[in-house]
């Protein structure tokens, strides 16, 4: 089954659509819910009306978002020579979105993944562009916008700063351009709230920073999901042929790993947030884990891990109700 995704063809795209339906088969019984609160950030304004949408449309929209993101991640990694041709990165991303029950919902983090892929692409473009200031400004603006829209993604501001100076030399001018771009979305938002006499309303979007371990609900499903995810990431790191890669590709993988670690750690600095926020780690995690399926020589072992992930997705999605 895994070998089918190694081919660059229209059939593979159809198989990705089929895979999304298989991974999220629980939607036949429970459509994805819209999970968003004011504590998440200004994205609450955008997503709140979605709670009135029909379950069928939400299921269709979820599949569409996940498949488009998977294809964009796939294109990013291959266009920058980080991975060979095929659809294995897209396959892994779709698998990972079904690993944890809360990730089967329409959450702000799911939408933020679009921006994460976009910013990774911009960072990788820095390596072969002479005029870097425009790209730096765009990266900073998107990172600031993400932090404003979805507060748990605030670590992206630091990650993208690291990314910029991974692919270009450090200068004070570049740093100030990035800092200005990060602040700009907040400036615009405060200006709008002030001009519309809505500053008191804006107060509810101020995050509660503090040191808090997130509440672990469905601990059995949590252990299964993150054990599989961590295992695949470690195997992906072990299989990545760094010595045979271009310098740009090596830097790209370093940024992916940095993003994975910092985004995972960011949740402990926010109060009143659960683990559904960690869907934002799916992008770097899938990219890294795809190396295992690409460079592993044993088709049997690859197929075994593929079906283990499928079974884990089924269990956390709906199998637990049957087993009880």
UniProtKB/TrEMBL annotation:
<keyword id="KW-0812">Transmembrane</keyword>
<dbReference type="InterPro" id="IPR045625">
    <property type="entry name" value="DUF6427"/>
</dbReference>
<feature type="transmembrane region" description="Helical">
    <location>
        <begin position="300"/>
        <end position="318"/>
    </location>
</feature>
<feature type="transmembrane region" description="Helical">
    <location>
        <begin position="222"/>
        <end position="240"/>
    </location>
</feature>
<dbReference type="Pfam" id="PF19992">
    <property type="entry name" value="DUF6427"/>
</dbReference>
<feature type="transmembrane region" description="Helical">
    <location>
        <begin position="139"/>
        <end position="169"/>
    </location>
</feature>
<feature type="transmembrane region" description="Helical">
    <location>
        <begin position="109"/>
        <end position="127"/>
    </location>
</feature>
<feature type="transmembrane region" description="Helical">
    <location>
        <begin position="277"/>
        <end position="294"/>
    </location>
</feature>
<keyword id="KW-1133">Transmembrane helix</keyword>
<protein>
    <submittedName>
        <fullName>DUF6427 family protein</fullName>
    </submittedName>
</protein>
<feature type="transmembrane region" description="Helical">
    <location>
        <begin position="252"/>
        <end position="270"/>
    </location>
</feature>
<keyword id="KW-0472">Membrane</keyword>
<feature type="transmembrane region" description="Helical">
    <location>
        <begin position="53"/>
        <end position="74"/>
    </location>
</feature>
<feature type="transmembrane region" description="Helical">
    <location>
        <begin position="175"/>
        <end position="195"/>
    </location>
</feature>
